[in-house]
Write a structure and sequence with these properties.
Protein name: Glutaredoxin
CATH topology: Glutaredoxin
Shape: globular
Distance between the termini: 32 Å
CATH architecture: 3-Layer(aba) Sandwich
Order of helices and strands: HEHEHEEHH
CATH class: Alpha Beta
Keywords: 2Fe-2S, Iron, Iron-sulfur, Metal-binding, Redox-active center
Pfam families: Glutaredoxin
Largest sheet: 4 strands, mixed
InterPro entries: Glutaredoxin (IPR002109), GRX_PICOT-like (IPR033658), Monothiol_GRX (IPR014434), Monothiol_GRX-rel (IPR004480), Thioredoxin-like_sf (IPR036249)
Family: Belongs to the glutaredoxin family. Monothiol subfamily.
Helix content: 40-55%
Strand content: 15-25%
Strand order of the largest sheet: 2-1-3-4
Number of domains: 1
Length: about 110
């Protein structure tokens, strides 16, 4: 499957997807770590993540797919939410909790 189709499939098939460096258990950058912490605190226990360090094709092509240059990248219901700063801002305002609650099956 071409990489752009694979990225689209990941985003389409999971309500919440975080493309990050490392894993939630072992994040490989501070921004990815903070994004995971905010998502978990917002109630996103069933978080689907993709380690871009182990997926060089995705790492190289995701910025073209999303028009967002940096990692992590958070997608909810197929839409790019943003990176670490936006995720943290949404968490602090309470918006992230609402978005996560709406995205996950009850």
């Amino acid at each position: 499957m071409p990489v752009m189709e694979r990225i689209q499939a990941e985003v389409d098939n999971h309500p919440i997807v975080l493309f990050m460096k490392g894993t939630p258990q072992f994040p490989m950058c501070g921004f990815s770590s903070r994004a995971v912490q905010a998502l978990k605190a917002a109630g996103a226990d069933s978080l689907h993540t993709i380690n871009v360090l182990e997926e060089p094709e995705i790492r190289a092509n995701l910025p073209r797919f999303s028009n967002w240059p940096t990692y992590p990248q958070l997608f909810i219901h197929g839409e790019l939410i943003g990176g670490c700063d936006i995720t943290l801002e949404l968490f602090e305002s309470g918006e992230l909790q609402r978005i996560v609650a709406e995205a996950l099956p009850q």
